[in-house]
Specification:
GO terms for molecular function: glutamyl-tRNA reductase activity; NADP binding. Catalyzes the NADPH-dependent reduction of glutamyl-tRNA(Glu) to glutamate 1-semialdehyde (GSA). This is Glutamyl-tRNA reductase. This protein is an alpha/beta fold. The chain is built from 16 helices and ten strands. The protein folds into three domains: about 190 residues, Glutamyl-tRNA reductase, N-terminal domain (Beta Polymerase, domain 2); about 140 residues, NAD(P)-binding Rossmann-like Domain (Rossmann fold); about 80 residues. The strands form two sheets. It has a six-stranded parallel beta sheet with strand order 7-6-5-8-9-10, with helices on one face. It has a four-stranded antiparallel beta sheet with strand order 2-3-1-4, with helices on both faces. Strand 2 and strand 3 form a beta hairpin.
């Protein structure tokens, strides 16, 4: 059994590919139920963000697991395997573990060290946990990688001047217009990314922001906080296209919220319009970019601004990677020891049973011994047994770390005539 990661992300695929395999909230419940049908997939966590669609899995066999997850992607999204094959990102064993750690701290993000990813990783794990899709192995992995990510952010400069996708989007717009103070902006959607964009726009001096959302109540909440914000009904969003200079769109809609045929009707051809689409799947019909005086920018086009802003954090990233390597090795040692933990528990239990039986027999024969003497004898015998099994337990753990746990577990069970227990059984907790 081993840990693998299979998916598609911003490192190896364009946005038009990534959006086809993006999991909506509705998709997730169906996806987890579907994954449970694969015998080779024991545990899974789906991580779906604007830059990636990846599945971390604990599988019976690596090759079968990779094949199963590829088939799952193809079947779930109804995409021919041959059109996806070149875009799959695959990691296994130690590299898969390091990838999850790097992911949580933002080392594999479009924006190095971004703050949002740790929350997305935590939410992805909790969602999988609530649906019974994870177990001892992935629960431990995700808890430890999130703890490590917090440690890295606390001890390094990886998040200094950290920018989110939304912040980069606003900086991108600022680079284009130079001065945003006299610009009118329409923001579509009021999720976290939109709120961050709005905060940045206000900081840059934008004084006129129109906000629209399918659920008008959330937009009204924002307008109550900021006098610069005006709420527009979602169905009237096109009415503002001829008046604004900038549109930032970030919704979770499964389809385009700005379509070319309607834009042609409302767009003022005498006015330049800059549209930044930071949604996945995309909110804006790519054909709109072909319209006169309209410029549409998508996630992949924000990379240059992201690269310009990561220089400060490059050195911190090296320090972060050193911490990740150390913590990933600790997890891998724990994981490799899973076969021996039940044997260690059973060895302790067996020796304790023998010890208790012998102590009872000895106490029965020591009629003249005082209570103090008996207590001392128990302490000495308990200490003696612990010292006798201390070295075998240490050697079992070392064998586990050397990936010989299955062999040593079997031999130990035979030597001590103990019943074999599955490595899924109760064992030592992480870090012991």
């Amino acid at each position: 059994m081993d840990i693998i990661v299979v998916g598609i992300n911003h490192n190896n695929s364009p946005i038009e590919v990534r959006e086809k395999v993006s999991f909506s909230k509705t998709d997730l419940d169906i996806a987890y139920n579907r994954l449970k049908e694969y015998d080779e997939i024991v545990e899974s966590v789906i991580i779906s963000t604007c830059n990636r669609s990846e599945i971390v899995s604990y599988v019976t066999k690596v090759d079968d697991g990779i094949k199963g997850l590829k088939a799952f992607y193809s079947g779930f999204f109804d995409i021919p395997m041959e059109s996806m094959e070149d875009y799959f990102f695959i990691e296994e064993s130690d590299k898969a573990v390091k990838h999850v750690y790097k992911l949580a701290v933002g080392l594999d993000s479009l924006i190095l060290g971004e703050d949002q990813i740790i929350g997305q990783v935590r939410s992805s794990h909790m969602y999988a946990l609530e649906r019974g899709a994870t177990g001892k192995v992935l629960n431990t992995l995700f808890r430890e990688c999130i703890t490590t990510a917090k440690k890295i952010k606390r001890e390094t400069l990886i998040s200094q001047n950290s920018l989110s996708i939304s912040s980069i989007a606003v900086k991108f717009i600022e680079n284009r217009f130079e001065d945003l103070r006299n610009k009118k902006v329409l923001v579509i959607g009021v999720g976290e990314m939109s709120r961050i964009a709005i905060e940045n726009l206000l900081y840059k001096g934008v004084s006129e922001i129109y906000v629209t959302n399918r659920t008008v109540g959330h937009a009204i909440d924002l307008s109550n906080r900021y006098k610069e914000i005006k709420v527009v009904e979602f169905k009237k969003r096109y009415d503002l296209i001829g008046e604004v200079d900038i549109v930032i769109s970030s919704t979770s809609a499964p389809h385009y919220v700005l379509k070319k045929e309607r834009m042609e009707k409302y767009h003022n051809k005498e006015r330049e319009l800059c549209i930044v689409d930071i949604a996945l799947p995309r909110d804006v019909d790519p054909e709109i970019n072909n319209m006169e005086k309209i410029h549409v920018y998508e996630l992949d086009e924000l990379k240059k601004v992201a690269l310009d802003n990561m220089e400060i954090r490059m050195e911190a990233a090296k320090n972060a990677m050193e911490i990740i390597i150390e913590e990933a090795v600790k997890f891998q040692n724990w994981y490799n020891c899973l076969p021996v933990f039940p044997v260690i528990d059973n060895l302790k239990k067996t020796t304790k049973e023998i010890l208790d039986e012998e102590i009872d027999s000895l106490m029965y024969r020591l009629d003249g011994a005082t209570d103090k003497d008996k207590a001392l004898i128990k302490i000495v015998m308990n200490s003696l047994v612990k010292k006798i099994i201390k070295k075998p337990i240490h050697n079992l753990k070392m064998a586990g770390e050397d990936k010989q746990g299955e062999l040593y577990a079997k031999v130990t069970n035979e030597l001590f005539s103990m019943k074999e227990y599955s490595c899924k059984g109760k064992g030592e907790s992480y870090g012991k």
